[in-house]
């Protein structure tokens, strides 16, 4: 198994452990597992970042690392991971998901700067009605 695959598998195992801990109500433990998963997935993404011909693996790893970064509150890192993924040639569907992540992490901050306070979950409820 390549180092990238090994790091990714470790990250997914840690993310699963975080989900289980969250279900048990062990939020501190879940946060620790999530942060460890984020570190592993970020390392895997970094190893493939310069391989522009390694799609869709390259963009999938970056998307996953960005999602974990968001969960950990590492917003600047998430933005960099998304930008790196989009700077390659991700498949259209993954590119759209990456753009959605970018909007997710920036829309609320933009609205706050404009003096608009919206609960994103409340907004989702309005849209899904």
Would you write up a description of this structure?
With 129 residues, the protein is mostly helical. It has one domain: Serine Threonine Protein Phosphatase 5, Tetratricopeptide repeat (Alpha Horseshoe). The protein is 78% helix and 0% strand. Helix 3 packs antiparallel against helix 4 (75-86). The longest helix is centred in the N-terminal third of the chain and has 22 residues, at 3-24. It starts with a helix and ends with a helix. The model has no long low-confidence stretch (mean pLDDT 92).
Average pLDDT reading: 92
Q: What value does the Rg take, in angstroms? A: 16 Å
The poorly predicted ranges are: none
Fraction of residues in helix: over 70%
The count of DSSP E runs of length 2 or more, i.e. the number of strands, is 0
For this structure, what is the CATH class? Mainly Alpha
Form type: globular
CATH fold-level topology: Serine Threonine Protein Phosphatase 5, Tetratricopeptide repeat
H/E series, N to C? Answer: HHHHHH
* CATH architecture assignment name: Alpha Horseshoe
- Contiguous helical run count: 6
Gap between N and C termini, in Å? Answer: 46 Å
Structural class based on helices, strands and sheet pairing: mainly alpha
The major sheet is characterized as:
none
What's the domain count? 1
The proportion of residues in beta strands is under 5%
